[in-house]
Write a structure and sequence with these properties.
2 copies of one chain form a homodimer.
Chain A lengths: L2 E5 L3 E7 L2 E2 L3 E3 L1 H9 L5 E9 L4 H9 L2 E9 L6 E6 L6 E7 L19 E4 L4 H10 L6 E5 L2 H6 L1 H9 L3 E5 H8 L4 H10 L4 E5 L5 E5 L2 E5 L13 H16 L4 H18 L6 H5 L2 H15 L7
Parallel strand pairs in A: 1-5, 1-9, 2-7, 5-6, 9-10, 10-11, 11-12
Antiparallel strand pairs in A: 2-3, 2-4, 7-8, 12-13, 13-14
Helix pairs in contact in A: 1-8, 3-5, 6-7, 8-9, 9-11
Keywords (chains A, B): Kinase, Transferase
Protein name (chains A, B): Sugar kinase
GO molecular function, one term (chains A, B): kinase activity
Chain lengths: 308, 308
């Protein structure tokens, strides 16, 4: 059983989809990553910051899932990071309505002493200089460092982002971000260029069209499970990342073969996340449910053509 | 070794992509389907019509591939069907520049006597009433009838199209066509509705995002092979269909498990088709090349999570 350290936001989200609307509910990249990783046998901690307005009930929820929250700083005088967004009818695009950084504006991450030797370091989507501070606090190099980022940081903080990318083993971004970062339309060529920036592994997420894992000229594909209804896509990418790193931390194996399994676990958990608003589905997801849907992933991709 | 009858266009195409431009070259749905099916051990025939302007050389090419062309009518006084189109930069969308129906306008298909007992009937994209005429000429019901169609027929000839759909076992359409036909956004729900129109199997093609095969509440997914370069997508969907029906005709097995293999073969051949203009790559494709890329499809999708 390995140690997993997650850096990222713990936040309030307010979400509007064609199917409904929420008030401020529990959200944030680290929250989704943590809840997904909690499906695996690993020692997991979150490093983040919240304000005095953040309900104790949410912290208790994370704790009850076995997540070490000693690295979540509570700034009594401050307000918690808040994001709100509205999805278009097809759920494939969304509009950000509000982003209030609040306590995130001057976040100085402090990794608890007992997690500075984590096996897996997961850098959730945040300002790259904050991600860099986490990397620098590690006492020894993690077995694997996984970076999630987005187009906003490519547009505004490319030099810092390039430095973080240069120090990570795996980058997870979506297809349009991969194209932006590499200036290549073909995802195969994009991955080749991003490899040269540092990461041995490049994961390109394509939403309902699955995810590609590139390594050394090889490629593995994890489909998204075709679902009757997608209710709310918020957090699906983070849940994917959480399943990915949670499985790696449990198995303590960072071979390409094991990373293939890890992206399947990530896709599997993401398929649950989108079934309800926010973290709702991930809060009550059981190991048995997750396991049984893995069988569907096998059925979805398995074929038996005999090669000569 | 089964018999495969292909109904569809044999035509001239003129194509413009970001990478170049062609004059009138060999094209047409039945041509692409036939060239793909020729990779398999089946007795294959094409039923179509061309004009007096159609080069003997093209007919000889089909014949040399082992395709029975006795059902390709040559109307000496007429001109061959001509389509020209221009692809946008990302190759995912295209604009039709010219459609000259010519001899296709009053095409009366005649299936050669020795193919009226075909095991597999492939109805390439054409006016549904022409497709219906082919169905009605079969002496006995084929083991499997596969229908390809497009949005144009949904817009203009829905009653006739519905009748054809009601008499086929498999329909292949792309994702937006599936949504249009079913009036459902979710592809899972779309497939359920289309099943109720007749077809036991629904294949939804998503271009570079692969293809889904739905049957009886189950679903199988064939990814598209991630390619460094896509040169010309023309005919990829027909090549997919050709690989699908060619494999079914060779194996004479229409079980769901064998249809899974068939969509992989279809995806595999389509990945070659797009590497060059028009039919160029499919003309010289060897069995060894096709076989070796199948191994990549295994590598692309195979994982070994043990389920309890």
């Amino acid at each position: 059983m390995g140690k997993l350290l997650i850096l990222g936001t713990v936040a309030f989200d307010a979400i509007e989809t064609p199917f409904g609307k929420t008030d401020k509910i529990l959200g944030g990249a680290a929250t989704f990553i943590g809840l997904a990783a909690a499906q695996f046998k690993a020692k997991t901690a979150i490093v983040s910051v919240v304000g005095g307005d953040f309900p104790q009930e949410y912290l208790s929820l994370l704790k009850k899932k076995g997540i070490d929250i000693s690295g979540i700083e509570i700034k009594k005088e401050g307000k918690t990071f808040f994001w709100s967004g509205k999805y278009n009818t097809d759920l494939n695009s969304r509009e950000t309505l509000t982003t209030e950084l609040n306590v995130l504006a001057d976040f100085e991450p402090v990794i608890p002493e007992h997690f500075r030797d984590a096996d897996v370091l997961m850098l959730g989507n945040l300002h790259p200089s904050v991600q860099l501070k986490a990397i620098e606090q590690m006492k020894e190099e993690p077995k694997i460092t996984v970076l999630d980022t987005m187009n906003f940081w490519m547009n505004h903080t490319m030099p810092e982002l390039k430095e973080v990318i240069g120090r990570t083993d795996v980058i997870t971004i979506n297809d349009s971000e991969a194209r932006q970062l590499s200036n290549e339309y073909s995802l195969v060529r994009a991955a080749q260029k991003i490899h040269r920036m540092g990461p041995k592994y490049v994961v390109i997420k394509k939403g309902e069209n699955g995810a590609l894992l590139f390594h050394n000229g090889e490629v593995f594909f994890a489909p998204a499970l075709p679902l009757e209804d997608v209710f709310d896509p918020t957090g699906a990418g983070d849940t994917f990342a959480g399943g990915f790193v949670g499985y790696l931390a449990e198995t303590e194996n960072v071979s390409f073969n094991n990373l293939r399994n890890a992206v399947i676990h990530g896709s599997n958990l993401a398929s649950f996340c989108v079934e309800k608003f926010g973290t709702e589905r991930m809060q009550d997801l059981t190991k048995e449910e997750a396991e049984s849907r893995l069988e569907q992933f096998k059925q979805l991709t398995q074929f038996d053509i005999e090669l000569r």
